[in-house]
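Incident review: delayed structure delivery

Summary: a single-chain prediction request sat in the queue longer than the usual turnaround. Root cause was a stuck worker, restarted by the on-call engineer. No data loss occurred. The affected request and its eventual output are reproduced below so the record is complete for anyone auditing the incident later.

Affected input:
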Amino acid sequence: MTTKNDPDSSTTINRRSRLGLRALAFAGLAAALAYSQVSPLQIIPLAPPGYSPDHNTVLHIKGPTEVLQADLIFQQGGTTGWHIHPGPVVVVVKSGALTEIHANGCMTVHPAGSAFFEQPDEVHNVINQFNGVTEVFATFLSPAGTPPLIPVSDPGGVCPNA
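Output delivered after worker restart:
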C-alpha cells in the first residue's frame, strides 16, 4: 500500500499524468488533421452574396460567348463614363455603393450587398458617389470578339421624377 509520503506513489501519479497528457495531445492532433483535410469542393465567396429583388432577369446571348469576371475598384468619384455592354452583365456590390445613372436621367443607388443586372445595349453611367472606395464584382457575358464595355455619348436624359 502506498501513502502520500511514499516516493513510488508520486512517480506513479506523474507517469499517469504524462500518459494522460500525451493521449490528450494525440487526440487533439488527430482532430486537427481530420478538420484540415480539403473537401472535394470548396466554394470560397469573393463577396457576400448579393441580393436582387428583380423577378425577370434575362441572361441570353446568341453565338460564341466570352465570359469575363472582374473585380472593379472605384475610388471616390470614380466613374465608368457613359457606355453600353454588348451582352448581359451581373454585378455584386461588395463594399461601398454605386450610383447608376440611366439614359433617362433617373438614378438607382446600389449599396453593398446588392446585386443588379445590366441588359445589352442599355445606355448608362456608373459612379461612386459614396464617401470612400467601392468594390464590385462583375461578370460580363459578351459576344466573342467584342469588348465588355463600349463608350457612348451622354444621352442627356432628364429624370421626370426629379
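Verification: The first helix runs from residue 7 to 35.
Action items: add queue-age alerting; document worker restart procedure.
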